[in-house]
């Protein structure tokens, strides 16, 4: 069989075993792309949670979730604990290891006999990788998973437990923080710090609320971002200037991207890498010059990418992400800004003389982008220059500053971290600079319950 026929046969198999359709890529704003073939991951009930369609499709494309036999995903149904465990193990790329475990293995849980055989291997892998609390006596496999339980699970999947333990005495600023168990306070803090989860608009966390299956895919997507970053992956954003593919394997293509810094960078990519566009996907070999993309790059290879509408990204700034935490004697300020994956998001929080103020949405985006214009940040700037420009823009005297943390991610993948504090300066005998700078260029099984219509 020729190479072309083999590739086509493999694609057909992929089509047959996965719930999606292939159609012509619809013409959208900024894309004259109506002749590109899209791969659309579909469930019959996808319309029940439109907001989650992109997350569901992403996790389906990564074989983390697959859905039920009747063609539904049930995005608004509570995710069961066993489903969440299986999803987490799959996201950690340990599915094969889980399937190799003996289904006869006895586990030291009081409800061991209630653990389904099809999920036992995943529970074993989760145990071996420390995803459960040491005091957990029951799995309660078919019980709905609460927000608190999911946070604990995913923070451990991200191997951030030590960070969580360091923040056990910092009570989260939620009206219902009393509902967060004392032993989980640090996990909530780290989850919020890493953008894994947020509170609600009424400033509640609702620790005991159930997580829906749709919400779970969003949490998994954010966890996936964290896992990739831990592996050393960086985010690059810009306009494609050249695309080339050959028949060589495995990474049979190269893509050159002119980042919003003006620099042109070239990376390897496999032609069958799925490029996400909202809730739909195309294969990488259908990318074109002129496309705006957000690419996740690991060791010189694009492992994930997003096709971005030109009118949904700020091409005038070279900043992909910005986080600022600033503390004075009588004032605190937090600024967050994200400009990637076709989304612009910003939030500004200030506290002065006991009064709190929060700005979100368009108003926050406008204010932060004005600040970025003033700062004129580039990857080559020193920490001293960045701090000086920031304090000048915010009209803050350095002597009045108690603590400052800055994290900047540029569109060429460079990351700069700055930590500055005026405390204990007398203890610094040899160091003139207190700045710490880091500059870096559903499931076959997860949905199986007692119903006959579940996917096996």
In brief:
This protein has 456 residues and is an alpha+beta fold.
Give the SSE layout.
Blueprint: H1 3-17, E1 20-24, E2 37-41, H2 53-61, H3 81-91, H4 95-99, H5 117-128, H6 147-157, H7 161-166, H8 185-193, H9 213-230, E3 234-245, E4 253-259, E5 264-269, E6 274-277, E7 280-283, E8 292-298, E9 301-308, E10 319-328, E11 331-340, E12 343-352, E13 355-360, H10 361-375, H11 383-393, E14 401-410, E15 415-421, E16 438-440
Parallel strand pairs: 6-9
Antiparallel strand pairs: 1-2, 2-7, 3-4, 3-8, 4-5, 6-7, 8-9, 10-11, 10-14, 11-12, 12-13, 14-15, 15-16
Q: How many DSSP helices?
A: 11
The radius of gyration computed from the alpha-carbon positions, rounded to a whole number of angstroms, is 24 Å
The biggest sheet amounts to:
9 strands, mixed
User: What percentage of the residues does DSSP assign to strands (E)?
Assistant: 25-35%
Task: Name the assembly state.
Answer: single chain
Helix content: 25-40%
First and last CA, distance: 32 Å
Mean pLDDT across every amino acid position: 86
- Order of neighbouring strands in the sheet with most strands: 1-2-7-6-9-8-3-4-5
Structural class: alpha+beta
Organism: Alkalicoccus halolimnae
InterPro entries: Cell_Envelope_Struct_Comp (IPR051465), SLH_dom (IPR001119), YusW (IPR025623)
Keywords: Coiled coil, Signal
Protein name: S-layer homology domain-containing protein
